[in-house]
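Pasting as-is:
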Amino acid sequence: MDLNVNGQPHTLPEHARDPAMPLLWALRDGLNLTGTKFGCGIAACGACTVHVDGVATRSCVTPLASVQGKAITTIEALGSEAQPHALQLAWLAEQVPQCGYCQSGMLMAAAALLAKNRRPSDADIDAAISNLCRCGTYPRVRAAIHQAAEKMAGGKK
């Protein structure tokens, strides 16, 4: 079974080819892309959020069969050390991470939002970011998304 992950074709190893297997486990155990986290296993927390054809998707409940032929993007491809994504820079500037466990899913949900809506309101952010953060950094998340949106728009309001 082949997947298009982070712009590259990948052939899954034999142990990660069950079409019913959640995408999360194929990414983590099959491709060793461990930035995507397991949180709840029922799509409630969002720690496992990746993009499938640009849409924020909870990978813990997404079977491999449903992502065949689709573009999958994980946190590993959001930015790089040399060129971080505007959200990653804003996350640091706003000191969003506390324990950090939810951060990869939160960032991926925020990136999907900004790809669709370059100037989200607080209500837009609240509707799009349903990820859970046990540390309660939601005000910082909102501020970071606004900061990244401004940077991505060239600093214009």
